[in-house]
Here is the input.
Amino acid sequence: KQEVTQIPAALSVPEGENLVLNCSFTDSAIYNLQWFRQDPGKGLTSLLLIQSSQREQTSGRLNASLDKSSGRSTLYIAASQPGDSATYLCAVSKNRPGSARQLTFGSGTQLTVLP
Amino acid sequence: GAGVSQSPSNKVTEKGKDVELRCDPISGHTALYWYRQSLGQGLEFLIYFQGNSAPDKSGLPSDRFSAERTGGSVSTLTIQRTQQEDSAVYLCASSFRGQPQHFGDGTRLSIL
Here is the structure.
């Protein structure tokens, strides 16, 4: 059974700092890995999706890397802003026949960026 | 809007009652997923629909939970004889051809 772990559980940084969130997974047979953001009382917003054949994806100040063989991914946030404060979730989908791509989620990292 | 819509946004009910949660996916999305987010368990997959194929029900926690998707669009998740441990946020997501899943804001279910 796939297990996804995120470290740290919570992180507080001053505005402007660069930071790294970590995600690890136990089964490397994944189809893709996604990073999501969740604001209080809201659903999930997809930030980056990395296919199993890819090593990284970038969007603005965000960069996500994937090392499938070691079961690790990182989300790098550059020049953090108070608006980045949210819970960040990592999720993997299993590489299986057919198209069922249900996600297995980590427990998230709660990020607070202090002004 | 063009996003995934869920209703109601909040539902409070008494233990033992049945509840129905609704999800309107993004138009044209063939895949629809239900997840549950609770304090103790995090985010868990419940059920998956893809087109006209039989749904993947492998995540449903008990036979009190069921879901249907009518006409390949709207889906309802039904919980019968609710228990206090069913209290959670129920999230729906839809996607198209392996693209990222788009999530609704969820239904916050509280069982008294």
